Amino acid sequence: MQLTKKLKEKNKKVVSVISGGNIDVLMISSMINKGLIRRDRIFSFSVDISDKPGELAKVVDLIAELGANVVKLEHNQFKNLSRFRDVEVQITVETNGTEHIQNLIETFEQKGYEIIKIKTKIN
């Protein structure tokens, strides 16, 4: 909902009170999430890893070393049955912005992983 030109007052300071009575918390949450995505503070990607014990831990440890925070992770061994030795992991992380994402991608590639960016949907 856009608030531009909703008030008739011009050249006056106006403040909007946001309280529990006049806000939809789901709308506020949605607005915050969209803002984080637009500012590259949320990054979603997939990476193929070997389907062996400990491989997922290596990926998560690397993310932690790089200072990103995992907010969602999907490890599905049965998603792509044409891969016999690998499994795709889809990960969403909180970042500090564009440079942080670039550093994450470069570091993963230096370690031999191929990062595939996932387009985060903003309605």
UniProtKB/TrEMBL annotation:
What GO MF annotations does this protein's record show?
L-serine ammonia-lyase activity; threonine deaminase activity
The Gene Ontology biological process annotation of the record reads:
isoleucine biosynthetic process; L-serine catabolic process; L-threonine catabolic process
Please identify the protein, giving its name as recorded: ACT domain-containing protein
- Superkingdom in the source lineage: Bacteria
**CDD domains, per database record:** ACT_ThrD-II-like
Stretches that traverse the bilayer: none
Q: What InterPro entries does the record point to? A: ACT-like_dom_sf, ACT_dom, ACT_ThrD-II-like, Ser/Thr_Dehydratase
Cofactor requirement: pyridoxal 5'-phosphate
The family database entries (PANTHER family) matched by this protein are listed as: L-THREONINE DEHYDRATASE CATABOLIC TDCB, THREONINE DEHYDRATASE, MITOCHONDRIAL-RELATED
- Keyword Zinc on entry: no
Q: Where is each ACT domain found?
A: 44-123
Keywords attached to this Swiss-Prot or TrEMBL record, sorted alphabetically, are: Lyase, Pyridoxal phosphate
